[in-house]
Automatic annotation (TrEMBL):
Primary role: Required for disulfide bond formation in some periplasmic proteins. Acts by transferring its disulfide bond to other proteins and is reduced in the process.
Protein's UniProt name: Thiol:disulfide interchange protein
Record family assignment: Belongs to the thioredoxin family. DsbC subfamily.
Alphabetical list of InterPro entries matching this protein: DiS-bond_Isoase_DsbC/G, DiS-bond_isomerase_DsbC/G_N, DiS-bond_isomerase_DsbC/G_N_sf, Thiol:disulfide_interchange, Thioredoxin-like_fold, Thioredoxin-like_sf
Major localization class: periplasm
Entry keyword Nucleus: no
Keywords: Disulfide bond, Periplasm, Redox-active center, Signal
Signal peptide bounds: 1-21
Residue span(s) of domain Thioredoxin-like fold: 118-236
All residue ranges annotated as the Disulphide bond isomerase DsbC/G N-terminal domain in the record: 21-90
Cellular compartments annotated: Periplasm
GO cellular component: periplasmic space
Length: 241
């Protein structure tokens, strides 16, 4: 039989080694820091899969890691339950997008709203986009259906482009809605400049992975890429819980 003091010393060394071992979060953060030091993890949680952790990044992006931080997966995680496939990754993204959009003051947007809205959509828009103009023509129909339309700026050609300058003029106008109506009708706007959120909204859209316009975000964070007719869009928007 081994002496008690030897067993105690062995246990002490084993406990110390566990204390020094990296936790899954520490291991994964170390791996990410080595390849991209400025990558910020907003939330870190265990995934539904044993041995896999989720790193939630800005804009609803999700990375999946092995507990030791050595292996990474990027893609969709589905839950097959009751004969249905539920996209868990998409749910995480939608919640994150909704949270980040809700943090943007409505006063920083150009809003077209009915008297008593039932829900809202947020539209990242470019005044030179043909389908954005088509969607804008249907804003009255969307309002009539009880949907508030919140516009955010997304000049596809970036800062300094003609669309960017037009959007700055819209946001700096005394009457933003009237200016937006003119911009969508391709009417000339009086150039204006002021402190405005166009750059911030463009950057946020890029974080969300938006590449084209109109990019429509429902109240729950679900993103719809491209134009949808008012009747179809209203049905989808009003179905959000």
């Amino acid at each position: 039989m081994r002496p008690l003091h030897v067993i105690s010393a062995t246990l002490l060394c084993f406990t110390a080694s566990l204390a020094l071992a990296e936790s899954p979060e520490q291991a994964i953060r170390s791996s990410l820091k080595a390849i991209q030091p400025d990558l910020e993890i907003q939330t870190f949680v265990a995934s539904p899969l044993p041995g896999i952790h989720e790193a939630h990044l800005s804009g609803g992006r999700v990375l999946y890691f092995s507990d030791d931080g050595r292996h990474m997966l990027q893609g969709y995680l589905f839950d097959f339950k009751d004969g249905k496939a539920v996209n868990l990754t998409e749910q995480i993204k939608n919640r994150a997008v909704a949270k980040e959009l809700n943090a943007v003051p409505v006063s920083d947007m150009v809003v077209f709203s009915p008297e008593k809205p039932k829900t809202h959509i947020t539209v990242f828009t470019d005044p030179d986009c043909g389908f954005c103009q088509k969607l804008h023509e249907e804003v009255p129909a969307l309002n009539k259906a009880g949907i508030e339309v919140r516009y955010m700026a997304f000049p596809r050609q970036g800062a300094g482009s003609a669309a960017y300058n037009t959007l700055v003029s819209v946001w700096c106008a005394d009457d933003r809605r009237s200016a937006m109506n003119k911009a969508k009708s391709r009417e000339a706007l009086a150039p204006a400049n002021c402190e405005n959120p166009v750059d911030e909204q463009l950057a946020l859209g890029e974080v969300f992975g938006i590449q084209g316009t109109p990019a429509i975000v429902l109240a729950d964070g679900t993103m719809i890429s491209g134009y949808r007719p008012a009747a179809e869009l209203a049905k989808i928007a009003l179905s959000v819980k």
